[in-house]
Amino acid sequence: MRDLFDKIYKDKGPLGKWADKAEGYFVFPKLEGPISNRMRFQGREVITWSINDYLGLANKEEIRRVDAEAAAAYGSAYPMGARMMSGHTDLHEQLQDELAEFVDKEASYLLNFGYQGMVSTIDALVSKDDIIVYDVDAHACIIDGVRLHQGQRYTYRHNDIESIDKNLMRATKMAEKTGGGILLISEGVFGMRGEQGRLKEIVALKEKYNFRLFVDDAHGFGTLGATGAGTGEEQGVQDQIDVYFATFAKSMASTGAFIAADQEIIDYLKYNLRSQMFAKSLQMQLVVGALKRLDMLRTMPELKAKLWQNVNALQNGLKERGFDLGTTQSCVTPVYLKGSIPEAMALVKDLRENHGIFCSIVVYPVIPKGLILLRLIPTASHTMEDIQETLIAFSAIRERLENGTYKRMSAAVAAAMGE
């Protein structure tokens, strides 16, 4: 019998094998200073394109004041205990009611964390006789939730309606055998590519198949739709989303999340969500802070307007310079380049050290080998100066990538890693 840890000693995984070269710089970097369009990284000021603070709320004076006052009033412990036992308050209920109204649903329920809440919601919605149909490019929290499912599940090709139709047909046949139902899961906005889920076309399939739709709208909430209520509002199908999910970690610049649905569905979920039933309640300072943030989403449309002004300026500027942004339909701005992992390291180091640009780097196995994805997240706090500096920098690094500069720079790294 082998030691359980043998696999850890022998194989660090596709990303872990780069730890000696990457940790502290390319992964687990330490940004310092107030959350803003410009922060500090290893002693240098950088334009930050890797913070999901879409509406620029994180460091607003009125937000920080409310957070501080709530912390002073309640501390970081109150309320103690799970919601069902001793952690329930009027303010939790008020936030739930206001969130439900904002996303045009009958009711909502607070979640301590988005990832944890997504896993638990999927688990609560399905039994072993039910079938899950979900996008092959779904976020890790959806995949982990699906892994808990003891019944059948089918993946469809990313955002492919023909594949969705085919898998709903398969699911229908299976459900007829098991006596179960069908849950289809899509993201409102796919956070890596920036594409909106094809919710309108998916909803149209309800005329053909009997299924329920669960949407993870982490990147759409606050950024899309006339009022900011998300991707369902943007596509005119919010009323056809059976269970709606959003996190506070992006547009709300905080911690926590919520689900929204018909009252009876929420009543069921709040008594069956294990991650909430057996975990401490969302602490009061976060609840009070979320109420303030939600009020600003509702009453300050200029925040979303400024966000989209910046999104359009950045994305149009990159497209005009010939960069490949894929098929993004959201604030998420992916820039696709061709190159190896060592080249990607050299490129990103050049961006940070010589151009003062900090953005996220994504490589294999998240995307196919031979591709480099630089993901930029525009926010309402960015300026036109930030955007112009970034466009100039991106033109420079592309030239160096194409003329082989990064390949020569990265040769030593590639040799060390056996690439």
From TrEMBL:
Q: Does the keyword Coiled coil apply?
A: no
Record keywords: GTP-binding included?
no
UniProt domain Aminotransferase class I/classII large: residue ranges: 45-391
Cofactors, names only = pyridoxal 5'-phosphate
Give this protein's Gene Ontology molecular function annotations.
Answer: pyridoxal phosphate binding; transaminase activity
| Pfam families tied to this protein | Aminotran_1_2 (PF00155)
Q: From what superkingdom does this record's organism come?
A: Bacteria
The name this protein goes by in its record: Aminotransferase class I/II-fold pyridoxal phosphate-dependent enzyme
